[in-house]
Amino acid sequence: MRVLFVCLGNICRSPTAEGVFRRELESAGLAHRVEVDSCGIGDWHVGNPPDPRSAEAARRRGIDLSEVRARQLSAEDFHRFDYLLAMDHDNLAALRQQCPEACQAHIGLFLDFAGQVDRPVPDPYYGGERGFEEVLDLIESASRGLVEDITRRLEGARH
């Protein structure tokens, strides 16, 4: 099972989702069964680490983002990943526009897994510290829901 988190530049929301989701997978005993990555729609930050404010907010919650480096969405991602999860409606529209017809992946908004259907993860880039904390709260909630969904899928595949 493979999960890809997608935002605009891959320096705030999607790397945070990658780090939080890895922790949730470890807690659920699924880290060895699920591959996790993140990327951006744009190429502005390729090769850069996450925004220092995102990294610091995550670190305060015990999540290390130091190994994450920004990359841009590629055509191969649509075939490689089972879930491509957008942080907002613009990211989702870009995913749908670039998605090849043969793609079998689940493409949707990440917060759908938090029971907050059609709600975006707000971009904290131009805001203050509280925005980064809000993003973490939302991502933690959606990560738990995604773990539940993947657990059901993995158990269903065994039966």
From TrEMBL:
<comment type="similarity">
    <text>Belongs to the low molecular weight phosphotyrosine protein phosphatase family.</text>
</comment>
<dbReference type="InterPro" id="IPR050438">
    <property type="entry name" value="LMW_PTPase"/>
</dbReference>
<keyword id="KW-0904">Protein phosphatase</keyword>
<dbReference type="InterPro" id="IPR023485">
    <property type="entry name" value="Ptyr_pPase"/>
</dbReference>
<dbReference type="InterPro" id="IPR036196">
    <property type="entry name" value="Ptyr_pPase_sf"/>
</dbReference>
<protein>
    <recommendedName>
        <fullName>protein-tyrosine-phosphatase</fullName>
        <ecNumber>3.1.3.48</ecNumber>
    </recommendedName>
</protein>
<dbReference type="Pfam" id="PF01451">
    <property type="entry name" value="LMWPc"/>
</dbReference>
<keyword id="KW-0378">Hydrolase</keyword>
<dbReference type="InterPro" id="IPR017867">
    <property type="entry name" value="Tyr_phospatase_low_mol_wt"/>
</dbReference>
<feature type="domain" description="Phosphotyrosine protein phosphatase I">
    <location>
        <begin position="1"/>
        <end position="149"/>
    </location>
</feature>
